[in-house]
Amino acid sequence: MKRHVVILCWLLVLVPTILVGTVALRLIRFEQERIRMAALNSYRSELQTISDNMMLAIDDVKAKMLDGLSKLDTGSLPSTLIEWEKFNPLIRNVFVLQSGGTMIHPDPERAASREEKTFLMRYDALFQGRQEWSKPLMEQGAAPPSPADNAILSRSTRVRQEMKGLGDISLAQSKRTDADLAGEASTIAGGWIPWFADNQLHLLIWTERSGYRYGLELETMALLSRLIGYMPGETSTGISYGLVDGEGTVIHQTGSLDLSEAGKKVVSIPAGDFLPHWELAIFNGTGALGGDSTLRYLMYGLLLLGLLIASAAGGSMLMIQAHRSRRDAVRKTSFVSNVSHELKTPLTSIRMYAELLEDDRVSDEEKKKKYLGTIVSETHRLTRLVNNVLDFSRLEQDRMPYDQTTFDAVAAIREITDTYSVHLGNVEIHLDLPTAPVVITYDRDVLEQILVNLLENARKYAPGSGPVDVALKDHPAYVHISVMDRGAGIARKHQKKIFDNFYRIDDSLTARSPGSGLGLSISRRLARLFGGDVVYAPRTGGGSEFTLHIAKGKTS
Amino acid sequence: MSRFRILVAEDDPSIRTGLIATLESEGYEVDAAKDGAAAVRLFGREKFDLVLLDIMMPELNGYDVCREIRKKDARTPVIMLTAKGEEIDKVLGLELGADDYVTKPFGIHELLAGWRPPFEDRWSPPITRGRSLNGFPWATGW
């Protein structure tokens, strides 16, 4: 095949392969990103749910505390609050402030404990009025929804707001009953203050009533330990949930991941209004999500490479196959033309001699006989060729009847060469055979056919180069029968191909020698059927040497 | 006056012998070559009235021989003997200067009928290249 055709075919195979591969890679990448986004969204909504649950719990605590505070009898404020502090683990400190700004409890003059002192210190700015007490009791609606909100989020947000609303209603009711009971018309103020001090979050709940501003500080850790219950205990592999404070320190985590090492925050949302700057986060160590794409791309790369190699290999195999069948087709065409030529040559002789005799153009009796003999030998030649073609088609269809007999190879060779040289008188054959019989088990017809094919080749392709030598060598396992000529020999590049079907060294339109390109191919295939072979070797001193190997005593 | 002389170039011995016998039985003088090179040598040495050329021959094939002959002599009629019935083979032979072709296997009547001159001494080379000799002017008009 011509070089540019080959290159074109390669391009035809390679370019679509590369295109398909690139598109596939892009799609994979896109799909990967989509899956990642979907996973992130699902994580985010999960976190939102946790956060909502926490929010509800806190709201519950807050509502109860505020309710409790608002119901307190202002007359016995400090003592009741101190009672609370003692028995409720959620309460860390309590305070009562007179509207003038005087601290009633804990008394700054004689603070009972170190805890009380630090408590006062902590909220000094608040208690001294430097800081706004802010936050009215009723919150003004929910925070605006974040852009990542989806349907689930907004639903949970709605739920949260509804719950809040309920709490507010109950609070309002309790307020009303309070007012009814105490007969007071004063408004109730109060709220929830997240307070940062010493890099720690503290939560203060307060209310103001009847000239007193009082409240309590929640034990943050106790509250958190309640909230932590809302985080999922079991986590899927490679994922951890964490509660992260404003400093970035992980306060609590679930899941076995070592966050200090491989931990990587995949997604996080604010923990909620009650814990400003805190975050709920999902960590991921294995790189199943988000980062660590190098390995994955390497994998895709390898996959793509595999795909490329596979299709390139498939394509080239197809091309080789196409090339082969094309070559075979060309050879078969030339085979048909060669065979027809081979058939026509003896036919021409036969017809010509027959007509000569028919027309009585020959008067000489001697010549008449000779011509009749030629007709017979040409008929033999025709038969041989037809046999070759028939054998070939039988071999092609893998069916060939054999008739194995045990006979003396030496005698057989003598007979075959005698007959052959009689039929084609112009070949001189020298025999170099052992005197003792060499007994083989073989199909005699096959032996004859192979031998005659080899002799024919010597006659055809080494004409006028002297006698053809036929030798038999007896080895322990094999019998070697060689047919040798002194012709031009066979160029190295042809030595293998001469055994191919239809292969002829000169197969051009103007081929100088006739032939079908079948003889050697059939000979070798026949020999191999009997466990032997036909091989070529350059003859020492010039010429060709074809050797038939016959496996001795081996019946197939 | 010499006899009508024919050069036969054919590698197959039995066909060659048969051709010689056939042509001699018609009274022609026949020279035979067993390959292309011998045919060219013979043609260079002697003078022939007709050349019968086989195509598939060792040494030089029929096309080559025809080319060589036409280099020396444009007038001597050349007839190709071919077993190849393909059109391309015929065209190639005629392009190279052959005057006709006979397809194997041919009968002797077929071979003799086409170009046998009516009067041997009036033989003139055909000038109608590419046409069958059956259509020669002397075959129809004479």
Q: Would you give an account of this structure?
A:
The complex is a heterodimer of chains A (556) and B (142). Helix content of chain A is 50%, strand content 18%. Chain A is rod-shaped and about 165 Å long. A 5-stranded antiparallel β-sheet of chain A has the order 2-1-5-4-3, with helices on both faces. A 5-stranded mixed β-sheet of chain A has the order 11-13-14-16-15, with helices on one face. Chain A has a 4-stranded antiparallel β-sheet with strand order 7-6-9-8, covered by helices on one side. The longest helix of chain A has 69 residues. In chain A, strand 1 and strand 2 form a beta hairpin. Chain B is α/β, with parallel strands linked by helices. Chain B is 39% helix and 17% strand. A 5-stranded parallel β-sheet of chain B has the order 2-1-3-4-5, sandwiched between helices. The chains are: A alpha+beta (556), B alpha/beta (142). Chains A and B meet through helix 7 and helix 8 of A and helix 1 and helix 4 of B.
The helix/strand order of chain A is: HHEEHHHEEEHEEEEHHEHEEHEEHEE
Structural class of chain B: alpha/beta
Mean pLDDT of chain A: 76
Terminal CA distance of chain B: 23 Å
Defining traits:
heterodimer; A: 556 residues; alpha+beta; five-stranded mixed β-sheet; 11 helices; rod-shaped; B: alpha/beta; five-stranded parallel β-sheet; globular
Brief write-up:
With 556 residues, chain A is an alpha+beta fold.
Write the layout of secondary structure elements.
The complex is a heterodimer of chains A (556) and B (142).
Chain A: H1 3-71, H2 77-87, E1 91-98, E2 103-105, H3 114-122, H4 124-127, H5 151-182, E3 189-197, E4 200-209, E5 212-218, H6 220-228, E6 239-244, E7 250-254, E8 265-270, E9 279-284, H7 293-358, H8 365-396, E10 404-408, H9 409-423, E11 429-432, E12 439-443, H10 444-461, E13 468-474, E14 478-484, H11 519-529, E15 533-538, E16 544-551
Parallel strand pairs in A: 11-13
Antiparallel strand pairs in A: 1-2, 1-5, 3-4, 4-5, 6-7, 6-9, 8-9, 10-12, 13-14, 14-16, 15-16
Chain B: E1 5-9, H1 13-25, E2 29-33, H2 36-45, E3 50-54, H3 62-72, E4 78-82, H4 87-95, E5 100-103, H5 108-115, H6 137-140
Helix pairs in contact in B: 2-3
